[in-house]
Amino acid sequence: MTYTESENSLADGQPCRLYLFTRGTERWAYCNTNADRTLGGVEYRAIPIEDDGIRLTGQTSADQLVVTCPDDLPLIKKFRGIAPSDDIWLTIRDTHQNLPDAADSAAVVWVGTLRMVRRPEPGKAEIVCNSLSASMNNDGLRLSYERNCPHSLYDGNCRANMGSFKADGVITALDGATVTLGQLPQLYAGGIIEWRDGMATERRGIEAQAGDVLTILGGTDGLEAGMTVTIYPGCDQTSATCDARFSNILNYGGFRHLPGKSPFDGDPIY
User: Fold this and answer.
1) What's the order of all strands across the beta sheet hosting 89-96?
2) What is the pLDDT of residues 110-150, one digit of tens each?
3) What pTM, to 2 d.p., does this model score?
4) Which of 19, 108, 139, 220 is the most exposed place for a label (fewest CB within 10 A)?
5) Exposure pattern of 200-225 as b/e (b: 16+ CB <10 Å)?
6) Which fold does the domain 162-234 belong to in CATH?
């Protein structure tokens, strides 16, 4: 029996739903059946999991999907402190328990990303997800006419090569908000700290630097003394720093010679 035949059957269908969460090469797979399932080489663990239904209204908030599951899953533990910096994707497939574990025996019915995790009561977690189409409704970034550079450091407009400026260091101390690394030049305020988190890479911003001490945006959850991390210099969006630190003045996005007097201040003589 095929998926279509089971789906259209009035008596022979045994519907079940498969949830595959992925982050880089990491994946967590669950199903709402009474036994584990394998599909496409992925083993889906049977747990009490359900969602509040798939909706396609065109409204981002209305189309949010809420998945309810136990709060002791490895996936949920990723959100006990700071949420992962990379998107976690969710792919939902519908199939039937009486079908073979073949790729064509399940249909993809929903794709999206995790937005946040709630814990409404002990033992239960709610995973709030945005559909793939929700990203199309986000406001686009607009370049502004300003003296400082509007580009985000290391993005496609900035074009500074991250790999050319990275440096490795070992954490010697941390206190929940800051980490201490040895012998750091004063380059890293506004930069990035990066480390391996299991099979994925975790990144956070560096808010400030005082000597060898870096203040980390979001705190130091996931870091520990003795860990090797990679750090990248920051930028204050001025042309001087762009040129001296990154030799990237040709990609500078600001207007260095912007007049200091506004033509809209009411003075008829400019």
Assistant:
1) 37-39, 42-46, 26-31, 15-23, 89-96, 107-121, 124-131, 65-70, 50-51
2) 999 999 999 999 999 999 999 887 766 666 666 778 889 99
3) 0.76
4) 139
5) bebebbbbebeeebbbbeebbebbee
6) Thrombin, subunit H (2.40.10)
